Amino acid sequence: MKCPVCGKGCIRPASEVLAEIEQRYPACPACAPETNLDKTKGAKHLPERVLRCSSCGKATLDGVMLDALRLLQEFGLRDKDDTLRSVGSPLIEVGYPLAYSPRLGPKSLIIFGTRYSKEAAEAMIEQIPEIKGVILSRGVAGIEDYETAARENVLLAGCDMRADISQSLFGEAVIYKSQSRIHIEFSRQSAPKMRILEQLYLQGKLRDVVDGLCGPGTLGLMCALAGAKRVVFNDAWLAGVQNVLLNLEANRSLLGIDEIEYLEVPKNPVGKEPVLVGRAHGSCEIEVYHGDLRRLFSRAKPADICLIDHFPGAKTGEMEKACRCCNEIIIV
Ligand SMILES: [Zn+2]
Ligand SMILES: [Zn+2]
């Protein structure tokens, strides 16, 4: 599958990603012990660099972040007192809850932070083999509510396509995200949203579900994995909807999808009147809409369960009112 951001092979079938995830990040027997550099010490107190393993070629996370710090110093964007932490947040290409610090191979880390320039970001991609993309942060990406403008972070260089592995008692799925346009959620073993889905599953309620503010589709995809017969995805944010279509494709064998139909291609980054952009058929009947949740049920059939996974602190009153035609509304 071609990556919609860089055109290369970033998107792989979920079954392949899951099969090799346990081998992806551990150290090899020849890897030196973790360097554990002090994240609060200024650059002047840190080593010049940390060597890659001579056997497997992988780098420590500290080693990559240190290279990035040195490079940002060369560009005058950090000084001798800036710390490793000042470089930004490291996002591993395939997010997975790890009990250890990952060892990194080529193009396996996306850096997200502030005080970068385009030139410095391009140099990071060229000179630091492990870095796949550099994102300039402007805050939480997406639509906070329907009244304020949408926010995107800026992909300065490389590719921002990454995935998170979503785990639950009914299985695992791989959720791809064009990360500069989708808000960041760290993979945690105790993901509270997944516990809510598991409760519903155990009560036999995950059969006919609307994922009303679906983003890249994590909750709805997990419902399909849990055996739901019908899942409706909806988001006003086009980037989310595009990621859902990609995730249906990447997870199609896990979800028992026989066919995916690509319908209307929306142009507006923020949708209003709901538009059916895609459908999938198989063990689960899936519909994907781009539009305002408050208008969704003028087009889509109401469901047993309507999940509303809103921005923290966002007002959901009007959305809840519009979704009352569903049997049960769950604020996630
Ligand atoms: Zn890519
Ligand atoms: Zn090694």
Description:
The chain is of the alpha/beta class. It has two domains: 145 residues, no CATH class; 140 residues, Rossmann fold (3-Layer(aba) Sandwich). Helices cover 23% and strands 24% of the residues. A seven-stranded mixed beta sheet has the order 12-13-14-11-10-15-16. Strands 2-5-6-7 form a four-stranded mixed beta sheet. Strands 3-8-9 form a three-stranded mixed beta sheet, with helices on both faces. The longest helix is centred in the first third of the chain and has 14 residues. The mean pLDDT is 94. The structure holds zinc ion (ZN) (2 copies). The site of one zinc ion has 8 residues, from loops.
Short description:
The protein is α/β, with parallel strands linked by helices and 332 residues long.
Blueprint (SSEs and pairs):
Elements: H1 14-24, E1 59-60, H2 61-74, E2 89-92, E3 94-95, E4 103-104, E5 109-113, H3 118-127, E6 131-136, E7 154-158, E8 161-168, E9 171-178, H4 192-202, E10 208-211, H5 218-225, E11 230-235, H6 238-250, H7 252-255, E12 257-262, E13 275-282, E14 285-290, E15 305-308, H8 317-322, E16 328-331
Parallel strand pairs: 3-8, 5-6, 10-11, 10-15, 11-14, 15-16
Antiparallel strand pairs: 1-4, 2-5, 6-7, 8-9, 12-13, 13-14
The structure holds zinc ion (ZN) (2 copies).
